[in-house]
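Project standup — Tuesday

K.O.: blocked on the structure for the chain from last sprint. Re-posting the sequence here as requested.
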Amino acid sequence: MVPTPTIAVVDDDEGVRVSLCSLIRSLGYEVRAYASATAFLDDQGAGDPDCMVTDVQMSPMTGDQLQARLIASGRLFPMIFMTAFPTDAVRNRVMSLGACAYLDKPVDGDAMAGCLAAALHQGRAAARL
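H.V.: unblocked you, prediction finished:
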């Protein structure tokens, strides 16, 4: 039996975090929610998720800074970024470092579902290598 994938949601906006977690649960995934990048990093006992959905603009650590920290520590899993303030510079940076998607807020539920399915497929394929 294949375990249910776990998705980590990292967003400092509580409303976005709650609604995104509800959507992800409705798609049949387990969810762990974090109000900041540092809260995710501090959660030592949880283990790595199968995928992460993170906001870009957060304080004190941005989503792209979180990505860099995870890569530097060898924690590699699919990441989906979302932002209300998209820029080509950030998009290019996170995508070049392996992000699965860079979405503009507000994110459409169907688009998120498709991105999650693709990211999890990519993560399973990478794990087989």
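K.O.: great, moving the ticket to review. The chain has a mean pLDDT of 95. DSSP finds five helices and five strands in the chain.
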